[in-house]
């Protein structure tokens, strides 16, 4: 078998280690996973009830157009149904954009440390990735503009950025969009939109009428707590949505995902409570990092990237043995780990384990 040459050296995405796997490997009874930016409080009770209520319909195919969910989301966002496309997580929308718009040799621009799925899907389609270094963990928009050529098809902005957690504020984003050529698509990935409390942050949906080359991505995996069901969405002009729909597989979101998302969307009180608890968790962790003398990037999602001043992979392994799963291995930040904001109890357990780990490593040094 001869695979496409451009995927031979493509790395396989490595998710956070599963809890059961860590328990089995290390013989642990209790493990706290703070690696995949999941909502520690889970889905809303109404979403769970809607999923259970639909279990008798598992023999039926889902609605391929997700009509009810599309209508509800359109009303929630203040757009038309024609502006929305659903996917198996927002990851699938990224893949569909690449499938629909990239030809081999096209160029795409992104930060040098951001969500890895942008690059992997561009690579699959034979596009050339231009990576622009972050500036203090934040997208360098001027640097990205400087790399635009007549071959540029798509620019990716993760806002808040994963893994650093920084944001591009409203004014900077608007100035950037004003300067981007109309024929270049800008994909604004707002997977953590609902967590952000910084008043300088912008709602990308409100910019769509002004910028027809803009696509906004969001998901039900994060604050809505439906990561297991894999459902996310893109919002853009009807023309762009129509083109992406042409390469979408039928029935790409399940009945249970649609039912859960519809109920979760209606429970905005639960969303607000999760946002409040997350903000408290950020403060809790940041105060502890300051006490320990550790630098962390500003946190605007439900995770924090912190410099542990030791090889991050070693700290990751040590924390793993103590029953705490975090994320390490960021190629440009070798001494940083990314930790999901957990419940107050989970955060406390993480800090205790981190403090123990750093103390033990100091002694060995």
Summarize the structure.
By secondary structure, the chain is an alpha/beta fold.
Overall 3D form: globular
SS content category: alpha/beta
How many beta-strand segments? Answer: 11
What is the spatial order of strands in the main beta sheet? 2-8-7-6-5-3-4
Provide a count of the helices.
Answer: 12
Average pLDDT over all residues? 95
Quote the beta fraction. Answer: 5-15%
Profile the largest sheet: 7 strands, mixed
* Separation, N- and C-terminal Cα atoms: 50 Å
Report the order of strands and helices.
Answer: HEHHEHEHEHEHEEEHHHEHEEH
Using only C-alpha atoms, the radius of gyration works out to: 21 Å
Q: Pick out the low-confidence regions.
A: none
> How helical, in percent, are the residues?
25-40%
What would you note in describing this structure?
- The protein is an alpha/beta fold and 365 residues long.
- Helix content is 39%, strand content 14%.
- The chain has helices at residues 19-26, 45-53, 67-77, 89-101, 117-124, 141-146, 170-179, 238-246, 255-266, 268-291, 312-321, 344-364, and strands at 32-33, 84-87, 107-111, 128-132, 152-158, 185-189, 214-219, 232-235, 303-307, 324-325, 336-340.
- It has a 7-stranded mixed sheet, sandwiched between helices. The protein has a two-stranded parallel ribbon with strand order 1-10. Strands 9-11 form a two-stranded antiparallel sheet.
- The chain is globular and about 60 Å long.
- It starts with 18 loop residues before the first helix and ends with a helix.
- The mean pLDDT is 95.
